[in-house]
Design brief:
C2D_MCTP_PRT_plant; QUIRKY-like; alpha+beta; Immunoglobulin-like; transmembrane helix; single chain; repeat
Length: 763
């Protein structure tokens, strides 16, 4: 068999060249965080002169080392254009010596018993030893025409095919669009980059209405897609109504829906539509500050009928570009930039992520009687989402893909999640293999501010998933991360800047309103990304955005309580140490504290410097405990490893509950017991504060008289006696030896405990 080799004007070296600067340090390449993976790329462009008559359905087969790939239907059947790229792993190409590319015809059969056999039109073979190696940033290899031989024509030559064949790595521009030999066929298995839609806050100020039919309880309903907001109810007076209310909705570019303003009248529980007006979003003014936008009158007509007049509505419409439309929690956000691009600050650095691979993943489905996982990764930072290719039937997938983001704020978080792909079974007839919701495998969060500039962090992160039965370890994810700053001064300057754009402070929104808008923004982003090709599944997007993190969880409540206890533990330790000093548990320490107290009282200007020096030395001492790698999700901190089954079942129970009534009743009773404890603590705190207020409120005349007399006596003593003497006497009195102490409570505490509170007035 004759072997045809392509013309190779320049044969590049197989290994990626490593260049060095004058200082001997290695220059960074575009894919230096991941291991280099070599592929054999075959780009099939088109074919010509395939015979007369023209083949009915020509296609191309590519075969190397027993692996076969096949082009889909031609994009342009008349000119036989495919424009597809295939990538075979180097380990596959190493076991073969030739690459075979052949063109076939699959004519439509008129026989009802079966299809017609495929017709071989010709082929071409390449010697793998003669195929060039391309190294980016070199220009793409130009495709060339190759003669097809071995066909069924009398001359043995049946046309030409345009191909480009080369060896490359995952840094090649054709890599994202290529079909891989280690993945399943289909667009849902390829690596892709997605961009979140540009979100705006649409502020609709409903001012007033005129000439509306008379009615009671009239309100205006604003609807944009699935979002519905209403003003308060008002009553017609002299033919006009007034509201002056702001309704804030979320809109995404490109604008597809229209804003529907509907006037409704309520009579009891019944409602009727008085009129409606549709406003195109493309004609609404945009602003980047708090300036006043001109209002306008809109004619209200009957719903669904044009040309009718039911009154007019006075509104003010504008897109607020000075806000950051949050689709993530603030403490987990990856971006704080406002919508308007002219308000963006320059980037402070670059974040590079290398997704190396997974290890020991648990099987998520069953194939041919054995466990299997078709894993892929999704990473999000800012408005950019990336998705790796799907590694089919592998519990130890290897991706080795690298991505880059611009960093505008160092106090942001990168999120990486692993999912099991079910979209590859979209066309399978078996019900158990049809498309199911994307199975979560785990999530990793990396805070950019925890990364040192220029340092590469290669770590293995545990993948943990909280399920109703309990915490499950799903495997590990190997990542390489590097943050490169542009200027250290710019990074330090970002720390003193406001976290959110100025509009969040000049015209703030309430917490409840922000949470509602965040949930709406997350749903809009999920809808838009699910319409991409290939789609990024809705459940995957919501899982990345933590859309369900606001649900009630007694586990998280306990975890937050222990976090508060951990924050306050240093203060508790200081109080315990002070009590030990007062009790002279260590006489040397007590004597040293006496000396320092006298020194600070005599030289009060040393108090503040001493405090700052203590904090400085404390931070310096803790430097040796600095984390050497980015922190991971802590199962112990979140109490996920000790959560009980009933607590997790309640956490995963949707709203409204789908559990039996007796289970819901038991949970409610348990919540009442917990709330009773909280109620008692709040009552005690209120009582202590009310006792302090009672000192000057004359609720107990004797106690107030005693307190005022002591205040007058203290004022006289402090006026006559130097303050330093009083301070030294107070310190020595508080730190006196236990042999001079009375075991009974101090008179001041006894006096405060006897003061009245308002607890006796509470029913």
């Amino acid at each position: 068999q004759r072997i045809f080799t392509p013309a190779t004007p320049d044969v590049y070296p197989r290994e990626i060249a490593t260049s060095y600067t004058d200082g001997g340090q290695r220059e960074r390449s575009s894919f230096d965080l991941v291991d280099k993976m070599e592929y054999l790329f075959v780009r099939v462009v088109k074919a010509r002169c395939l015979g007369d008559p023209q083949p009915a359905a020509p296609f191309v087969k590519i075969e190397v080392s027993g692996r076969t790939a096949r082009c889909g239907p031609a994009r342009k059947m008349a000119t036989c254009e495919w424009e597809e790229t295939f990538a075979f792993g180097r380990e596959i190409a190493a076991s073969a010596s030739t690459l075979e590319v052949s063109v076939w015809d699959s004519p439509e059969s008129s026989n009802s018993e079966g299809s017609a056999p495929e017709v071989f039109l010709g082929g071409v073979c390449f010697d793998l030893l003669e195929i060039p190696t391309r190294v980016p940033p070199d220009s793409p290899l130009a495709p060339q025409w190759y003669r097809l031989e071995g066909g069924e024509s009398p001359t043995g030559v049946s046309g030409d095919v345009m191909l480009a064949v080369w060896f490359g790595t995952q840094a090649d521009e054709s890599f994202p669009e290529a079909w891989y030999s280690d993945t399943a066929v289909g667009a849902s298995c390829r690596s892709k980059v997605y961009i979140s839609p540009k979100l705006w806050y649409l502020r609709t100020t409903v001012i007033e209405a005129q000439d509306l039919p008379h009615g009671t309880g009239i309100c205006v309903r604003a609807q944009l897609g699935f979002q519905i907001l209403k003003t308060r109810k008002s009553t017609t007076r002299n033919g006009s109504l007034s509201w002056n209310e702001d309704l804030v909705l979320v809109a995404a570019e490109p604008f597809e829906e229209q804003l529907a303003l509907t006037v409704e009248s309520f009579a009891g529980k019944d409602s009727s539509v008085l009129g409606q007006v549709l406003v195109p979003l493309t004609g609404i003014e945009r602003r980047v500050d708090n300036r006043l936008v001109a209002s306008r009158w809109l004619d209200v007509g009957e719903s669904g009928q044009a040309g009718t007049y039911q009154g007019r509505l006075h509104v003010r419409l504008c897109f607020d570009g000075g806000y950051h439309v949050m689709d993530e929690w603030t403490h987990l956000s990856s971006d704080f930039r406002p919508t308007a691009k002219q308000l963006w600050r320059p980037a402070v650095g670059k974040l590079e992520l290398g997704i190396l691979g997974g290890r020991n993943l648990l099987p998520m489905k069953t194939k041919n009687g054995k466990g299997s996982t078709d894993a892929y990764c999704v990473a999000k930072y800012g408005e950019k989402w990336v998705r790796t290719r799907t590694m089919t039937d592998s519990l130890n997938p290897v991706w080795n893909e690298q991505y880059t983001w611009q960093v505008y704020d160092p106090c942001t978080t990168l999120t990486v999640s692993v999912f099991d792909n079910w979209q590859i079974y979209a066309d399978v007839a078996e019900p158990e293999k049809r498309v199911k919701p994307e199975c979560r495998i785990g999530k990793v969060r990396i805070r950019v501010s925890a990364l040192e500039s220029g340092k590469v962090y290669k770590n293995s992160y545990p993948l943990m998933l909280l399920l109703p039965p309990g915490l499950k370890r799903m495997g590990e994810l190997d990542l390489a991360v590097r943050f490169s700053r542009i200027s250290e001064l710019e990074v330090l300057h970002a720390y003193v800047q406001p976290l959110l754009p100025p509009m969040h402070y000049t015209r703030p929104m309430g917490i409840t309103q922000q949470e509602a808008l965040r949930n709406v923004a997350a749903r809009i982003v999920a809808q838009r990304l699910a319409r991409a090709e290939p789609p990024l599944r809705r459940e995957a997007v919501l899982y990345m955005l933590e859309a369900d993190a606001h649900a009630w969880s007694i586990r998280r409540t306990r975890a937050n309580w222990y976090r508060i206890v951990n924050v306050l533990s240093p203060a508790v330790d200081v109080l315990r140490w002070t009590d030990d000093v007062r009790r002279w548990r260590n006489p040397a320490t007590s004597m040293l504290v006496h000396f320092l107290a006298v020194l600070l009282v005599c030289f009060p200007e040393l108090i503040v410097p001493t405090l700052f020096c203590y904090v400085f030395f404390l931070g310096t001492w803790n430097y040796k405990y600095k984390p050497r790698s980015p922190p991971q999700i802590d199962a112990k901190l979140s109490l996920a490893d000790v959560a009980e089954g009933d607590d997790l079942d309640e956490e995963f129970d949707p709203i409204p509950s789908v559990r039996p009534p007796e289970v819901v009743r038991a949970r409610y009773d348990r919540l009442r017991l917990l709330a009773a404890r909280v109620q008692t603590v709040l009552g005690d705190l209120a009582a202590q504060g009310e006792r302090v207020q009672a000192l000057v409120c004359w609720r107990d005349p004797r106690a107030t008289g005693i307190f005022l007399g002591m205040c007058f006596l203290a004022a006289a003593v402090l006026y006559l006696v130097p303050l330093k003497v009083v301070a030294i006497a107070f310190v020595f009195y508080c730190l006196r030896h236990p042999m001079f102490r009375d075991p009974m409570p101090a008179p001041v505490l006894s006096f405060l405990r006897r003061l009245p509170s308002l607890s006796e007035r509470v029913v």
